[in-house]
Write a structure and sequence with these properties.
The structure holds 2 protein chains of 2 kinds. Chain A is an alpha/beta fold. Helices cover 44% and strands 18% of the residues of chain A. Chain A has a single domain, classed as Anaerobic Ribonucleotide-triphosphate Reductase Large Chain, CATH 3.20.70.20. The chains are: A alpha/beta, B alpha+beta.
Chain lengths: 457, 195
């Protein structure tokens, strides 16, 4: 028997606090599409995506209508495209990416992930082809997203790959200079890449996954913020553990909406259900911000001492609530801090209270990394590589995922304002301290060995 | 066709100004007649205790005897009490087979809203199983649980209803009950989807 107060609190989450399913992502393994000629491979990829994902958007819309819970994005995550590029060249990489782009458009999804290479231990020729093709691919396609895993806790950090990818980030930004380097927003460099992350730009179908699988990303920073606000309004002296408890309970409720939607979509499509990823992913809307949650906790200026602890509290409470809500929790599950996509974080960067160094500290305790951060277009490749190495080190040493999504904005310098529009938002170009101060270290290349905690067998 | 009567069961309705111990009095009266209560819905509306019970008795029931036994617990004219034999078919199947949805309506308190809502639902063959109204003048919030016939296009119902309520200045939602059970109950989601 449902209680009226419970019904109304759920309605409030949906109607006033921006609760939604941020993404239903269909993973599709395209390894079987390899053919002798790339044109044939592309046709096979398009055919498989059409067959498997043709009903994705319709089914998501039907289920969303049934529950009155918006499914904001419907997306595709393919198995690593590098598998289809062994023995191929740059032209074939672009052909494959265009086939992915066209397939996504045909089934009406806005982004398709899986232009991916896993190079944490070393690089095959196909993976090298994929990485080298990134500027062209991300410059000439609309929906394709790319991810490169350069490190993991069991392998250490492939510093050669980091150096190469850093150059490609800058070249990608240059290739999309007319869009303020937006191509780089579709490329994530990971340590410990999750195989079931439904969120873009880093979604891909991992090698251990079923042939087709639905992974769901739920968000709801607005719901969490309002829960914290209600608590602190009712009890202004609420302690941090009470705030953590409130967030945990809220995360439980949010996570279960995601599993409900995901399981029903999967059943209707006749594919496996994978995971629900409860990640507090903001949008540029007021009231849908992760930064506002920290402010509601009492961090009046984001970046002030204590901010990292606030991130840790939030991330941990979200994970605990999610873990109790569902035994199918996966992906990243925690708090994101994508600067341009979160108005409060973007304003803190513009005000100078939130620096790249502070963001880096926050990434040690949140679920992802330096995300959607604008840097000057003239940033040297070694500095970009240094930022990736730092993030990878945090991920590898702590046995967690970290990622870097930097956007070096061509022609822009510290303090300049950039707007991408839509969910990608906008922000202010941040300062990279000592941009040439680590070139000698980065240029040594090679491999940073795995930590002792990676030797667990 | 008249419904067959279950001669050993009856339906009892009691409406009385609320005070402590009313349900005890009613339950005691039924028990004293060797009855076993097997269904009950009780609430307080506007200061009035209201309850409807079903009860089974070991032999044939004389409704007037049960009514008199319950009435003995109250002063003269204090309570409205009705007892009728239980129609067997009424307990066998719900009036509508389908999916349970929750309907919420909020907006200015106007006397025509409930009539418009219930008229629409009845016309579409949608059964109301529970209804609560909360007044916070000048606003009102209705929360109802309804059963939508299995093969009905829920999107069409949602759209029609939204349009109807918009004309009355009300906001509304019709959502499958599982979204509320998922967010408010403890238990595996898979059990909701199997149900």
């Amino acid at each position: 028997m449902l209680r009226t107060s419970d019904i109304l609190s759920t309605v409030r989450m949906l109607q006033e606090e921006h609760l939604d399913v941020r993404t239903v992502t269909l993973g599709v393994n395209v390894a079987e599409c390899a053919r002798g000629e790339m044109a044939e491979t592309c046709r096979a990829v398009e055919g498989k995506i059409g067959a498997r994902a043709g009903n994705l958007v319709r089914v998501c819309d039907e289920v969303a209508g049934r529950y009155g819970l918006p499914v904001v994005n419907k997306r595709l995550a393919l198995s690593a495209a590098s598998q289809l590029l062994e023995g191929r060249g740059a032209r074939d990489a672009l052909l494959l990416a265009r086939a992915m782009d066209a397939s996504a458009a045909a089934v009406r999804v806005d982004l398709i992930g899986g232009f991916t290479a896993l190079v944490h231990k070393g690089m095959t020729p196909g993976e090298q082809t994929l990485i080298n093709a990134l500027p062209v691919v991300l410059g000439r396609t609309e929906r394709v997203c790319a991810s490169i895993n350069v490190a993991d806790t069991r392998s250490g950090i492939n510093a050669d790959a980091v150096r190469l990818v850093a150059q490609k980030i800058l070249q990608t930004a240059e290739a999309t200079a007319d869009k303020n380097g937006f191509g780089a927003a579709k490329l994530v460099v990971f340590a410990n890449i999750p195989e079931d992350n439904p969120f873009m730009a880093g979604a891909f179908l991992g090698p251990g996954a079923p042939e087709c699988v639905i992974n769901v990303g739920v968000s709801g920073p607005g719901v969490v913020k309002r829960a914290v606000e209600r608590l602190t309004k009712a009890r202004p002296d609420a302690s941090l553990d009470e705030i953590a408890e409130e967030i945990k309970h809220t995360a439980y409720r949010v996570t279960r909406t995601g599993e409900l939607i995901g399981r029903e979509v999967a059943a209707r499509l006749g594919v496996a259900f994978g995971v629900v990823d409860l990640s507090l992913a903001p949008t540029p809307l007021i009231g849908d911000s992760v930064g506002e949650i920290y402010q509601a906790m009492g961090i009046e200026e984001l970046g002030a001492p204590g901010t990292t602890a606030a991130v840790a509290l939030l991330n941990d409470a979200v994970k605990k609530g999610g873990a109790f809500a569902s035994s199918s929790v996966g992906g990243l599950s925690g708090a994101f801090i994508p600067v341009t996509e979160d108005h409060a974080l973007a304003e803190a960067v513009a005000a100078g209270t939130l620096s790249i160094e502070k963001l880096e500290a926050m990434t040690a305790v949140c679920s992802i990394g330096i995300d959607m951060v604008l840097v000057p277009g003239g940033t040297p490749a070694t500095a970009v590589a240094g930022i990736i190495l730092d993030e990878a080190a945090i991920g590898v040493m702590n046995g967690k995922t970290t990622g870097v999504r930097l956007i070096p904005v061509p022609g822009k310098d510290v303090g300049d304002r950039v707007d991408f529009g839509g969910l990608f938002g906008g922000g202010t170009v941040a300062r990279v301290n000592c941009p040439r101060g680590s070139a000698a270290f980065v240029n040594r290349g090679g491999h940073i060995p795995a930590p002792l905690r990676g030797l667990t067998n | 066709m008249p419904e067959p009567i279950d001669g050993r069961r009856c339906v009892i309705t009691v409406v009385v100004g609320d005070r402590v111990g009313i349900l005890r009095d009613v339950a005691s009266a039924v028990a004293d007649q060797d009855g076993v209560i097997d269904g009950i819905s009780q609430t307080v509306v506007g200061g009035y205790f209201t309850a409807t019970l079903t009860a089974a008795f070991p032999g044939a029931v004389a409704p007037e005897e049960i009514r008199a036994a319950v009435a003995a617990a109250f002063g003269p004219g204090e309570a409205f009490i009705a007892v009728r034999p239980h129609a067997r078919a009424a307990g066998d199947a719900p009036p509508v087979a389908g999916a349970r949805y929750v309907i919420t309506i909020a907006g200015p308190n106007r006397p025509t809203v409930l009539k418009a809502v219930t008229t629409y639902l009845a016309r579409r063959g949608i059964n109301i199983e529970d209804w609560n109204v909360m007044f916070d003048e000048p606003y009102v919030t209705h929360v109802g649980e309804i059963t939508v016939p299995r093969h009905m296009d829920i999107k069409q119902v949602q759209d029609e209803f939204h349009h109807l309520m918009m004309q009355l200045g009300m906001t509304t939602c019709i959502q499958h009950e599982n979204i509320f059970r998922a967010t408010n109950e403890v238990g595996p989601i898979t059990s909701l989807l199997k149900g």
